[in-house]
Write a structure and sequence with these properties.
With 468 residues, the chain is an alpha/beta fold. The chain is built from 15 helices and 15 strands. The two termini are 41 Å apart. Bound molecules: zinc ion (ZN).
Length: 468
């Protein structure tokens, strides 16, 4: 598989450190609110990468954290007059409702920053002992970015960009040695949660949390580190600086970043106030449609959010689900008696082609956009196969492949829903009425079925019922 690596700005062949095993980390949510569509994109993207790596035969250890202590959390807690922990508990619960809805598999490890304080202090201490970190009295412990020769290698910024005016202005940056220096440990302020440390009571900076949780759960060097592209600088650059200086080895071999979700050409973000939470969107569209919408674009391309585009995704997903339902219906129907050899051969070949093309697209830097097109191509072939009376065995090959590749994308096809006995009884009564040529009665029963939220369609292979 090839992945675009932000470090080298090229697509590279993915080679894990240990054959058959992948260690992957993605930055998780700060749990002070519901998450929005822009936040959801990395969750879905890295869940899909994980699913595809597993499908390709790798064993994946995936860690995604919760940031449960930072300025925004403290502010929210103070506004509501509750503890930071209360806020974290509430929004972690809400996170799971949406993330489970989006069918994101639970990560192997999902640590909270506040449960990783020991690991955080361990890294800060290693940096301090090496002289890479220094204390600003009354403020905190800071990282000196000039102590690492390759600082800026991920974002491709250099220190000159970060240090306008050079050395002589150093003293003016609130006691920092360099303007790009960042806090590893923030000393306690009145009313803030705090932990003990060798430098004084306080709380961790944001960047150090991820460095610590990676080390604690996955080790010093991991295969893949992911996140949204807005995290490249300074967050990921600083993770690299801290981890590599403290551990004296590479933090991650592949850095994978997803692009933004835009609204009217602007990045969706809480600070711009143009965001739509997943919870809000889920009130109008099923979760699986939101996931399908996210995966319909390549992860490195911006996607635009609009009602129309979500509706288009809904229609597209419905087409796939309907195809799966039709295949299942005909495979199980006694009335279906397809046995056309050419049609059977054609749909089996289409299933194999869809699989091979899907794998080729996913191998090419997780190109889910074209992988979705492969699904549509298979749907078209499957629909033709039913019309052309392919064998049930051939239809089953198509259905299994459709389920297999949609499952790799984590796309749920809602076809398993059982039709209630009340409705099946009515469908039988209607069929009996039609047989007796009592069409008025048949129509009456059809209306009754519709009023109960189901549709009944006559097909050459018998009546087919669907939930409206
Ligand atoms: Zn992070």
């Amino acid at each position: 598989m090839k992945l675009f690596n932000t470090l080298t700005r090229t697509k590279e062949e993915f080679k894990p450190i240990e054959p058959g095993h992948v260690k992957m980390y993605a930055c998780g949510p700060t749990v002070y609110n519901y998450f929005h569509l822009g936040n959801a994109r990395p969750f879905v993207t890295f869940d899909t990468l994980r699913r595809y790596l597993e499908y390709s035969g790798y064993e994946v250890e995936f860690c995604q954290n919760f940031t449960d202590i930072d300025d925004k959390m403290i502010k929210r807690a103070n506004e509501e007059g509750v503890t930071v922990k209360d806020i974290a508990e509430r929004y972690i619960k809400e996170y799971y409702i949406d993330a489970d809805g989006l069918n994101c598999k639970r990560p192997t490890y999902q640590p909270r920053a506040t449960e990783s304080i020991g690991a955080i202090i361990g890294i800060v201490k290693a940096l301090y002992d090496q002289g890479v970190a220094y204390v600003i009295d009354g403020d905190g412990v800071y990282y000196d970015v000039t102590k690492k020769d390759d600082y800026g290698k991920l974002s491709h910024y250099n220190l000159e960009d970060l240090n306008p005016g050079g050395g002589e202005r150093k003293a003016s940056y609130d006691g920092k040695r360099n303007p790009g220096d960042f806090a590893l440990w923030k000393f306690k302020k009145e009313g803030e949660p705090f932990w003990n440390s060798p430098w004084g009571e306080g709380r961790p900076g944001w960047h150090i949390e991820c460095s610590a949780m990676i080390k604690k759960h996955l080790g010093n060097t991991i295969d893949i580190h992911g996140g949204g592209q807005d995290l490249i600088f300074p967050h990921h650059e600083n993770e690299i600086a801290q981890s590599e200086a403290a551990n004296c080895c590479t933090l991650a071999n592949y850095w994978v970043h997803n692009a933004f979700v835009n609204v009217d050409g602007e990045k969706m973000s809480k600070s711009l106030g143009n965001f739509f939470t997943i919870r809000d969107i889920a009130a109008h569209f099923p979760y699986e449609v939101i996931r399908f919408f996210i995966l319909s674009g390549h992860y490195r391309m911006p996607i635009n959010f609009s009602d129309e585009l979500l509706k288009a995704s809904q229609t597209g997903l419905q087409r796939i689900a309907t195809c799966a339902a039709n295949l299942k219906f005909n495979i199980e129907s006694d009335a279906y008696t397809g046995d056309d050899q050419a049609a059977s051969d054609a749909v089996k070949a289409a299933a194999k082609e869809a699989h091979d093309s899907f794998v080729a697209h996913m191998d090419d830097d997780l190109n889910t956009a074209d992988a979705v097109t492969d699904i549509y191509t298979l749907v078209k072939a499957a629909n033709t196969a039913i019309d052309n009376k392919a064998s049930k065995e051939a239809l089953k090959v198509a259905l299994d492949m459709l389920n297999e590749i949609t499952d790799v994308l984590g796309i749920v096809l809602k076809v398993e829903e059982d039709i209630p006995a009340e409705i099946t009884d009515l469908v039988e009564q209607r069929a009996a009425a039609k047989k007796a040529k009592d069409f008025a009665e048949a129509d009456r029963i059809r209306d009754l079925i519709t009023s109960k939220g189901y549709s009944v369609k006559d097909t050459p292979n018998g009546p087919q019922v669907e939930k409206l």
